[in-house]
Amino acid sequence: MKTLSAEPRPQTSKIFEALGKFLVGSAPSARIDRSSNARGSTSSLRELARTKEQQLWETKLAHRPKPFWYPYPTLRNLPVLERLLAGVGLDFLQLCRGKYGRVADIGAADADLAFFFEELGFSVDVIDNEFTNFNKLDGARILNGVLYHLKNPFYILERLAQVTKYCFLSTRIARQTADGMPLAKYPVAYLLAPDECNNDSTNFWIFSDEALRRLIHRTGWSILAYTTIGETNNSTPADPNHDERVFCVLKSNARMELSAFPNPVPTGEKMGTTTIQWNTVDAGDGEVYVSIDGQKESLFAAGRHGAAAANWIQPGSTYEFRLYDASRSRLLDKISVTTAIE
Questions:
Q1: pLDDT averaged over every residue in the chain
Q2: 294: how many CB neighbours lie within 10 A of its CB?
Q3: How many CB atoms lie within 10 A of CB 278?
Q4: Which helix (H) or strand (E) holds 298?
Q5: Do 155 and 133 form a contact (C-beta atoms < 8 A)?
Q6: Which of 151, 178, 293, 314 sits 20 to 30 Å CA-CA off 242?
Q7: Average pLDDT, stretch 124-135?
Q8: Is the peptide bond preceding residue 262 cis, with omega within 30 degrees of 0?
Q9: pLDDT tens-digit series, residues 88-128
Q10: What's residue 56's pLDDT?
Q11: Separation of alpha carbons 175 and 279, rounded Å
Q12: Do the beta carbons of residue 244 and residue 228 sit within 8 Å?
């Protein structure tokens, strides 16, 4: 999973007020168990994020004055993403964990997200750009950039789609120009002047809503969830009082995959169900076989890509799903599915 966080340098903006309103009345966060490195036992994602934000500010202010640090509350994006994923039946932390429990925080600011995920037991890579980072990455060691700070956002999204399965993307969009020319229904991007938006010369492209959606699809992604907050009627590319942000969850179509969700599979009196998804990308048609408890494998599904439910998962058994090419001469991927221990 890669995290793109396109947040501006300081300005008088109403976007975080809008973010707060978006979260009011939302469904409660799921209760989660914290890692052994974290304090306490069980809490909600929102509560954990709020607590971590306070702890990080205490640590930051003990070393440098407040103006040195990135001023925006990065961790408050997490409940938005959790709510988006819940709307399409996905669990935020399980999706982040994937097979390997690795997360990349791209455009990390003070790395609040990275510290938060690390405390939950993830392995985290922080990627930012020393020269455009808010405080020049004092003490950090890995470099990177963010969407509207990139001269070539198409290339970055396309490359990410080839190496990661999911992307959480937030960025600014505009529905009209400052003088009222409509942009929303056209797939266009507005190129900012060096001092036009927050007097920050590293700001380049502000997309229309239609352009961002087309960019996402052209670079090899599907949109799982998508929402906007802020000035959603008359947003402009640069005015802080007409600032609109997109939050979306993307899934790569350009990466070979074999996945199962949920996994482990919850079971009760009846047999459990998991959905197997596969995509062979450039390998042509594929075939998915399953082996139960190491026995002879049998054909489960076929096609270049697709999804199929396995509604016969029994407690105590292990199911290994294997993705082959059409000739069954090459194993492309495999995944083991088990049941949850109650």
A1: 80
A2: 8
A3: 26
A4: strand 298-303
A5: no
A6: 151
A7: 63
A8: yes
A9: 888 888 877 777 777 878 777 777 888 888 888 888 877 76
A10: 84
A11: 35
A12: yes
- What does the block give as tokens for 134? 């808010």
Which structure tokens are listed for 86?
């819940």
Looking at this protein, which amino acid is placed at residue 131? Answer: F
Average pLDDT over residues 80-93: 82
CA distance 153 to 163: 16
Share of the chain above pLDDT 90, in %: 33
Global pTM exceeds 0.90: no
**Residue 206's pLDDT is what?**
95
- Complete domains list, the chain, with CATH: 2-252 (3.40.50), 257-337 (2.60.40.10)
Secondary structure (3-state) at 227: strand
Residue recorded with tokens 């352009």? 211
Asked if 291 contacts 297 with a C-beta cutoff of 8 angstroms, the reply is: yes
Place of tokens 């008088």: 12
The two three-digit tokens of residue 91, written as one number: 């669990």
For residues 318 and 270, is the Cβ–Cβ distance under 8 A?
no
Nearest to 205 by CA among 169, 127, 152, 133: 152
* Residues 107/144, Cβ–Cβ less than 8 Å: yes
Read off the tokens for 229: 């907050």
